[in-house]
Amino acid sequence: MKKNNAVLLSTPYLIWMVLFTLIPLGVVVYYALTDPATGVFSLVNLRQLGMYLPVLWTSIVYSLVSALVCLILGYPVAYFIAHCGQTAQKFLYMLVMLPMCMSFLLRTLAWVGLLNDQGIINNLLVAFFDWLRSLGGVFAGIPEDFGRLTLIRTPGAVVLGMVYNYLPYMILPLYTTIVKIDHRLIEAAEDLGCNGVQTFRRVILPLSMPGILSGITMVFVPAVSTFYISQKMGSSNTVLIGDVIERQFKQGNNPNLGAALSIVLMILVFVCTGIMNRFGGDEEGSVMV
Amino acid sequence: MKKIISFVLAVCLVLGCCGVFASAKGEKVTLYVYNWGQYIAEGDDDSMDIIAAFEEAYPNIKVKYSTYDSNESMYAKLSNGGITVDVIIPSDYMVGRMRQEGMLLELNYDNIPNAQYIDESFRNTSYDPENKYSVPYTWGTVGIIYNTKYVDEADVTGWELLWNEKYADKILMFDNSRDAFGIAQYLLGYDINTTDEAELQACADKLAEQKGVVQQYVMDQIFDAMENEEAWIAPYYAGDYLTMVEENEDLAFYRPDHQGFNVFIDAMCIPSCCQEKEAAELFINFLCDPEISAANMDFIGYSVPASESKQYMDEDVVNDPVAYPDAEELRNASSFDYLPEDVSRYMESLFMSVRNG
Amino acid sequence: MKRTNRFITILIFIFLYIPMAVLVVASFNTGKNITHFDGFTLQQYVKLFKDDGLLELLRNSLVVSILASLIATAFGTVAAIGINGLNPKLRKAAMSLTNIPMTNPDIVTGVSLSLLFVFVGSKLLGQRNSLTFWTLLIAHVTFNLPYVILNIMPKLKQMDESLTDAALDLGCTHVQAFFKVTIHEIMPGIISGAIMAFTMSLDDFVISYFVTGLDFVTLPVEIYSYTKKPIQPKIYAMFTLLFLLIFVLMVISNVIQLMGDKKRQVARGK
Question: Taking a C-beta distance cutoff of 8 angstroms, is the pair B255, B329 a contact?
């Protein structure tokens, strides 16, 4: 194709992207550097950022843990799907995709209903122990209302919410890399005397590295910036950076501080994905869902 | 196959576009009403559907109804700009703040004849001395709602109940700065309209101390949490208690009258971003109609500022001391006043740091 | 090994689908509490279809996502072909630009677009209402474009350029060559890009939440405000219907694909 044509075709797109991705970021910087009350240039927002370092740290810890849990849970699933027959693969892939298309707000709310102190799981537990008590004998000593667990509003519940919401983002890229692994390589390894564990460690795992890295990124980025999951599943003490930003905009009437925090979040995410890409080598849009 | 897909897409597109622009074609006025959640009768539980009734009475007006969950979130949405609203219903201190900041339009009372029914005691208030900008919608009080099944009556002694570690993780708290600070101010014995930074800081410390026992900071989620007994103690508005107690009989309401409590007026206003002022005034007038307001109050449970309406209301509601406390109980009640802008900002930022800390 | 994997997979699928089952069951509940099943009723579905507000929100969501995904697909296809023809340096720059909304957290994209619209609309142009249907559409097109482009680029790279050259040699104009050759070669990428854009748009909450005003609200944004009030069970009924709809659509598209694959295999077998 002629070079002129290429420039002609891509220019409108580039202009659009500059207008609606680069310039908005500029506006965010502008807001971050102005005083909320007077609207003049000031560093007051940046000075307040130090206060939010602990919140930022909590967000990173929560989302890294979630990403790791997703990897541990997601890898066997992706591996299993990749080794099914063609039709089964398509169908299972669809079943993983499907939850992503449904309102995550309502699905998270369903978890709240399951985990609440008066929720479904606790009600079932209590009903079970009531039934045991009614049997009499050794079980007669079980106290009333026995078996209630504190599930909701714990750090575990927040991680569960994140894992539940973002697990498909881990499984799908893992599946696309694993399915592409040349089966002859595995056979070769086995022929050369590797046992199952060795084959996995020396052949399969290194070959699925791009999928692992892109999966971790795809879980980490939305998890670190979420505000809904921590609001619904966490206690009043689990505050994540996304919560703080949302609250500054929607309640606190301080978009300027919100803008400054957004910049911090953005830099954090770019640094993290940068590190990931470093490990994974430079691949343009390597693994798409 | 591709043809079928593109055909289906094209049909969807055309239908969709028709949908979008059809509403624009008719000569209808669209009125944007922005109100608190759970704050108008919408036809549930055999109540009157006020908005449908209004649209029936004025067929050329279509109401678009949206809700907010606190004065502060409504203010943030309006002051950040970018939206059109015709009618809002802020509380007293927020009416004062928005009036001072030029965010409200003066009302034309020729279009609101029903404003005559408003009782004298709700006129010429400190937040709107000449009634130029607002017409009262409801009034009410703030107290503590608690579940008698779990909470020991001996512990119900005052606002300190909300700090009681015995009920840790079963206590809910207001998720808006003014109401939350108000409680701390009553507890510490400060004036609720203080502008003293040291006092505000002390309140923030008191609220931060409470954080360990608070299950969640909520507004209208309180309905589900209290009805399902997920939480046992929560400060909230008297009118909403009356709604909740219908679902769960174990709930009780308590106003710490020895420490003081907040009595508030929520008033209808027209913000400066309004585009349909006359329709907005017709809507305000409609809500002031004694029979309409009686039907509305019967459902939402708040107290009515126009005695004229009481004759159309349920006897039980009108005589309920929760909704209409006597003068003796109200002697220590006080209402929020407009604070200077820098104090409002300071209080908001303190509350944000309590929430985020 | 395989058996443990299967076991884990089954557990994970149960984990993924239990909350949805809870919502589906709740839609048939006579009580309004999600945790107690009081009895079976279809009342919530009746209420849902009587609720014009909810149906309008659903329509709003569909309008935005269909329009945004179509615009993004057409625009993105053209752009991808253009980018593919650029010299490596420019191409790399264009791809980095494309990657910004992909790597940026949604909340930052939402915040930045809303600040832009309000800044330009209210402060520069003095509009009263700067967050409208059109700004929402712009936001959706913007976050859809990268998905379309990243789906098409690999197909363009795989494509044999001599095919286009052959078409040109045989007297096609560039436009004809595009419609007769290129578009067929990259069709799978276009379709998967469009589908992805559509689903992303339909389910987007975070960006829309910051970019919508009051006059045009989409379903996910309104669901968020519903979750801050006592929840109305008709929402569960709507969830159930949407779940069924998407499930059926996915099964159909899978079956069609499978049949296509089989045909191709048969053709290759010959």
Answer: yes
Residues near B290 by Cβ (< 8 Å), separated by ≥ 6? B114, B117, B306, B308, B309, B311, B312
Enumerate residues 6+ apart whose C-beta is below 8 A from A92. A81, A84, C9
Q: Which of B6, B20, B49, B222 to mutate to test the interface with C (most CBs of C within 10 A)?
A: B20
Neighbouring chains of C at 3+ CB pairs under 8 Å are A, B
Q: A119 to chain C: nearest residue by CA?
A: C35
Q: Please give the structure tokens belonging to residue B184.
A: 């701390």
H/E stretch holding A80? helix A53-82
Q: Which fold has domain A49-116+151-185+211-280?
A: MetI-like fold (1.10.3720)
Domains identified in chain B and CATH numbers? 27-138+264-325 (3.40.190.10), 140-260+334-356 (3.40.190.10)
pLDDT for A288: 41
Alpha-carbon distance of B219 to B179, in angstroms, equals 11
Helices (H) then strands (E): counts for chain C = 12, 0
Kindly report the average pLDDT of chain C as a whole number.
Answer: 90
Contact (Cβ atoms closer than 8 angstroms) between residue C102 and residue A221: no
- Residues A233/A160, Cβ–Cβ less than 8 Å: yes
ipTM above 0.95, yes or no: no
Q: What is the pLDDT of residues B119-152, one digit of tens each?
A: 999 999 999 999 999 999 999 999 999 999 999 9
Q: Is B2 an interface residue toward A (CB < 8 Å)?
A: no
Q: Dihedrals φ, ψ of B83, to 5°?
A: -135, 160
Nearest CA in chain A to C92: A284
Residue C152, burial from CB neighbour count under 10 angstroms (0-12, 13-18, 19+): buried
pTM greater than 0.95 (yes/no): no
Query: Which two three-digit tokens encode residue A239?
Result: 């505050």
Encoded tokens for C243: 């779940």
B24 close to C (CB below 8 A): no
Mean of the pLDDT values across residues C237-266? 86
d(CA B295, CA B310): 10
Domain ranges of chain C: 1-41+235-270, 53-232
pLDDT profile of chain A (289 residues), mean per 10:
76 95 96 89 91 93 97 96 91 91 92 94 92 84 83 95 96 93 89 88 90 93 94 91 93 91 94 82 44
The two tokens of residue C214 are: 């009051």
CB C207 within 8 A of CB C111: no
Q: Taking the mean position of all CA atoms in its chain, how far away is CA B311?
A: 25
Q: What is the H or E stretch that residue B234 is in? A: strand B233-237
Interval B266-281: pLDDT, tens: 999 999 999 999 999 9
Domain C53-232 in CATH 1.10.3720.10? The answer is yes
How close C56 gets to chain A, by Cα (Å)? 17
